[in-house]
Give the backbone structure.
Amino acid sequence: MQRTSSWHLAVVLAVAWTVAVALSLGWNIHLMYGHVVKQAYGMANAAIDKDMAYRQLVAGAGGIYVPVEGGVEPNPYLSHVPHRDIETPDGRRLTLVNSSYFTRLVHDIEAEGGGLRGTVTSLQPLRPANSPDSWHRDAMLAFHAGADEVSEVVRVNNQAQFRLMRPRHAQESCFACHPRGEIGPGDVLGGLSVAVPLQPLRERLFGQLATLAGGHAGLWLIGLFGIRIGHRRIARQEQFLAYNAHHDSLTGLPNRNYLVGYLPLQMEEASSRDHHLALMLFDLDRFKNVNDSLGHSVGDALLQEIARRLNRQARDGDRVCRLGGDEFIVVLNRLGPDSEQAFMRARSIAERFHEQLGQPYQVLGYELHVTPSIGIAVFPEQGDTLEDLLRHADVAMYKAKSEGRNNIAFFMPGMQAAVDQRLRLEKEMRAGLARGEFHLHYQPQYDTRERIVGFEALARWESPQLGSVSPMEFIPVAEESGLILALGEQLMAAAVKQARAWVDEGLFPDEGTLSVNVSAHQFHRQEFVNHIRGTLEQAGLPARCLDIELTESIVIDDVQGTIKKMEALRQYGVSFSIDDFGTGYSSLSYLKLLPVHNLKIDRSFVRDIDSDSNDAVIVETIIGMATHLGLEVIAEGVENLAHLDFLKAHGCRRYQGYYFSRPLPADEVTQLLRKQQADASSQSAV
């Protein structure tokens, strides 16, 4: 469409330029022909001026004698003049001619040379040869009406000539030949006219016309060449704009605009051939952490490498597109007519993509680990329009994420309700953050003497519309939507403020800590260290009172960057715990590098230590390893006395779970601390 537009513009410009040059040439030819007329007028005007000069000269002299030869005969109208004819001593015959006769003789000589043709005429001529034609008669009538001269281009014998005529006014000498009648001195007696042939002048003009036409032709060609160059530049610019409009500038992949035009055509072709196609939507898990921790240049380079892997893995005929951010689309064409086989092929292809994208990336000196969550929608079973396929692939992708990320999921009809619920949850979360609906509960941590030695701050949400919402529901939504940043900052400030209140009341345990979970989105922000320090300083809480809990997945995303931030806060006085230890990646390989104070054994291992020997061995191993590394161990999920006895027996000295206390509001924790303080005072008194 755009190329057609540029060609149309070029044709219009070429036609307009041709018309302009043609008009210019025509106008210049018109001016040159007008110049011919002006030139003819000048020649005629000069001839009449000359004739008038001759007439005045001859009339002033009373006539002149000329030899009677060469066609000159005595003027019969001067027969009454004495001495009209004389003879010279040498025998030559001379005759007297008046001004009119002399002028006519001059005109005859000029006419014989093929030049100007002059005419002396009158409405009542003495000589029949001087009788006026119709043009002369009209001109003399104009003279009687007051005109000074008459000029016109006329055709005589099919030849163009320019005629100019001026009046002759009667003088006393004129009445020597002309009868006075009703004419007196000063009246119009007749006229002098000159006819200039235009053809010779026009022939001399042809050379100039050739030069003029050649110049215009050259100008026309230059203009066409310029239009051609301009068209090519416009066409290239249109191609550039069209490419940019349909391709991603970072990866060079087709973009959403391209997909909107491409996919309906493929769906139409698949329908006509009774084939299936599938839409695979890729979203990179925890990609934002890369941008937040290492910068956008590393993130962009990672996206480019992912695009290359997608292209290498794609089959011939498939199409890889980037929707934006860290989302990619692969259109799988030609999956065959059989529905079951189409689903199996789509699954098999998705698994190959999944494996390739899950391999480590070497990017700008960093080794990065990112995994894809892949949602698949198959045409026509799971959507027969562009909008349906995109929406259903997106729903499937969120299903893959909700199942722990790094998964592949096909769209199922029931998923839409889950997505609608998630969108509603996100909307209510935004409103809830603005209204301050989120708060903290605190789960006490106990030592071997079953005394409170610390707390873990846990987020809670009481929504007027949704009721009590579990953290297992709203935390994943907060992380996926980015609301975790605002939520984390809000809860961190509240936790630090509450800890400061317990310190001021003398209730905060000696050497105790308040543990606060930090998400990957929060931790990988460049300003994280400064934000924590600012929050502590604003509340006036000693840094030793704060313990930050990180999951192993946060560490593995960027080990070096994680160590740098942890070390900066450790020197400030903040301690760190690895939460859910044993459920992440290659724990032992990096644990020795981290400035960690505590390991928290995940509740999934503690839950069955009294009945599952494997869990018992794992817990025992973690405690032993932590002891050798000089780390404190906190066991989560202590639900009964058997759990507690096992942990004590194997060297674990800190515990957290429902056996001791569920998470409590701050005022109930305050009562526990006051009671513990009172009990301690009583024992001291005893």
